[in-house]
Write a structure and sequence with these properties.
Length: 367
């Protein structure tokens, strides 16, 4: 039975035997070694300076196959127990878990908690959405943008950021050379198209989005627009996340104004930030602002990440210790928090480093 089910795929492969190019396999192996490292966001990624074949992997395996064979392969995949009665088991869409993680694990970001949950829940519950969901995360480094992207992936997909339905692009790593933007365009379009064909619901994360070339964003702009399909492929069940530091100054200024006026941080609303954040994004330097993504109003929500205060840094430190199975006392948490840099200097109000470096810093305080 197994062989019988596999025959259509084997026949299709033989008809497209030129797919198996050993140089492509070599490039893919090198790429995925780097990709897995970067996909976990655990350190600096070093781009290959001259080899464009390793920037954005494309899967020529599917490019030469008719839709009928892709469908047959999908049916075979499910026959092996990889799919559920409710659909593809790679996709979990655990909205309850998403709400819980945002509430318990994300500190000091009441706006991000509310907007992200509302946006994702609304998109998941509406299979007839007329466009993909496009979110743009803004704020200082270390305030939780990457962390929230990971929380979304963890709750929408069984394998989180390592799911084959999730793809992370880091602008300076995957697209380092402006002179190669035309090459990157083709590679990026093909990579996105391939994933959408293979997964009924996809997640694309663009980190350091402000460093993307405008032509590169415009090349994929149709995939985020209000189209039934693009060249016969529907992208309406895709989620696009753009993460950038754009708007950090505006967000910090608003937060500082609230603090100086004696208002609670939690009183900051989207009405205080969204229009200013959108305006700064439109006026900023770099390809993200110059792209048709902005002028075409295709971003559904601009999500602000507020600067973190001393108390939030302590909560991050507590979580980092708990992840190692440790229970620190208040004195230890204070020592970790005091080791961070804060601005304005005279008031030591906002952490200049956020929570990103906490896991590494606690190594200095372990016995």
């Amino acid at each position: 039975m197994f062989l019988y089910q596999l025959l259509p795929f084997l026949w299709a492969v033989s008809a497209n035997a030129d797919f198996f190019q050993f140089d492509s396999i070599s490039n893919a192996s090198t790429y995925y070694f780097n990709y897995i490292y970067c996909n976990l966001w655990e350190g600096e990624c070093q781009p290959n300076q001259d080899d464009t074949t390793q920037q954005v992997p494309t899967r020529d395996l599917w490019a030469g196959f008719p839709q009928d064979y892709i469908r047959l392969l999908s049916q075979w995949y499910c026959s092996l127990g990889q799919c559920c009665e409710s659909g593809d088991c790679r996709i979990t869409n655990n909205i309850t878990g998403l709400a819980s993680d945002l509430q318990l694990k994300l500190h000091g970001q009441h706006l991000a908690q509310s907007v992200v949950l509302k946006a994702v829940q609304g998109f998941i519950s509406n299979p007839e959405s007329n466009k993909p969901l496009t979110l743009s995360f803004h704020g200082w480094s270390g305030t939780g943008k990457n962390f929230v992207a990971r929380i979304i992936a963890d709750n929408l997909y069984r394998d989180g950021v390592k799911s084959e339905c999730v793809r992370l692009f880091i602008a300076p790593f995957h697209f380092p050379h402006a002179r190669l933007v035309d090459t990157y365009k083709g590679q990026l379009r093909e990579a996105i198209r391939d994933m959408v064909l293979r997964c009924p619901q996809t997640l694309f994360i663009f980190d350091e989005a402000e460093k993307l070339h405008p032509g590169l964003i415009d090349a994929i702009k149709p995939y985020m627009d209000h189209y039934d399909n693009v060249d016969g492929v529907s992208y309406r069940r895709a989620v696009f996340l753009f993460l950038s530091n754009i708007g950090g100054t505006t967000i910090n200024d608003v937060s500082l104004d609230f603090w100086h006026s004696g208002q609670n941080r939690e009183d900051i609303g989207m009405e205080d930030l969204e229009h200013r954040l959108r305006a700064e994004a439109m006026e900023s330097q770099g390809g993200f602002a110059q792209s048709e993504l902005m002028s075409g109003h295709l971003i559904d929500f601009f999500v602000p990440f507020l600067p973190l205060e001393y108390r939030h840094v302590k909560l991050c430190a507590r979580d980092a210790y708990a992840a190692r199975g440790l229970e620190p006392d208040e004195g230890t948490l204070d020592e970790v928090a005091k080791a961070m840099l804060y601005v304005p200097k005279e008031e030591r109000l906002f952490s200049a480093q956020g929570c990103k470096s906490i896991p590494q810093r606690i190594n200095f305080f372990l016995p």
